[in-house]
Design goal:
It holds the Pfam family AHSA1. Residues 19-154 form the Activator of Hsp90 ATPase homologue 1/2-like C-terminal domain. InterPro entries: ASHA1/2-like_C, START-like_dom_sf. Belongs to the AHA1 family. This is SRPBCC family protein. This protein is α+β, with helices and mostly antiparallel strands and 164 residues long. The chain has a single domain (11-159), classed as START domain (Alpha-D-Glucose-1,6-Bisphosphate, Chain A, domain 4, 2-Layer Sandwich). The protein has three helices and eight strands. The protein has helices at 21-28, 32-35, 134-156; strands spanning 11-17, 47-52, 59-64, 69-79, 83-88, 104-114, 117-125, 159-161. Strands 2-3-4-5-6-7-1-8 form an eight-stranded antiparallel beta sheet, covered by helices on one side. A hairpin with a 3-residue loop joins strand 4 (69-79) and strand 5. Helix 1 crosses helix 3 (134-156). The radius of gyration is 16 Å and the shape is globular.
């Protein structure tokens, strides 16, 4: 980014799920396929599975019904059950962007409010790294993440909205 580029506001969401922190982390990461919308994919084939490999350097990708795979990003930080940070390597044409310096990222942090209640804080940031498409990507994912996080919360069990 240079001095003439402007920052694009991050997309932030917070919610509370009525499960232990370890379960919330596992459902978000290893269980991503349980809650991800089937029509949210970039591959040419209908979506069969979403996979987040459980390690730093692991892939976030989709598998089509024909077995083909399409990358979405990489796990930048894997710190169970505290947080996960992932590159969002999807460009303005909704295709995989192999250059991570031209991509945004999302981070999810998990805070134990009690042994059976977890506050989940989500932030997708760095949209300006997408270049001219950054604002359009931001605008497209803002509502999408809200709906996806609601589906994640449902997959964990009972949920309530977090106080701001």
């Amino acid at each position: 980014m240079n001095a003439t580029d402007s920052l694009i506001a991050p997309v932030r969401h917070a919610l509370v799920v009525e499960v232990p922190r370890e379960r919330a982390f596992d459902v978000f990461t290893k269980g991503i396929d349980r809650w991800w919308f089937r029509d949210h994919h970039i591959g040419k084939q209908p979506l069969q599975q979403v996979v987040m490999e459980p390690r730093t350097g692991g892939r976030l990708y989709e598998r089509g019904v024909d077995g083909s795979e399409c990358d979405w990003g990489r796990v930048l930080t894997w710190d169970p059950p505290s947080s996960v940070r992932v590159s969002w390597q999807i460009n303005g044409e909704w295709q995989f962007e192999p250059d991570p310096s031209r991509c945004s990222e999302f981070e999810v942090r998990f805070f134990a409010e009690s042994p059976t209640r977890t506050r989940v804080e989500f932030e997708h940031r760095g949209f300006e790294r997408h270049g001219a498409a950054g604002q359009a990507i931001h605008d497209a994912v803002t509502g999408g993440w809200g709906a996806l996080l609601a589906a994640f919360a449902t997959a964990t069990g009972p949920v309530r909205e977090a106080q701001a």
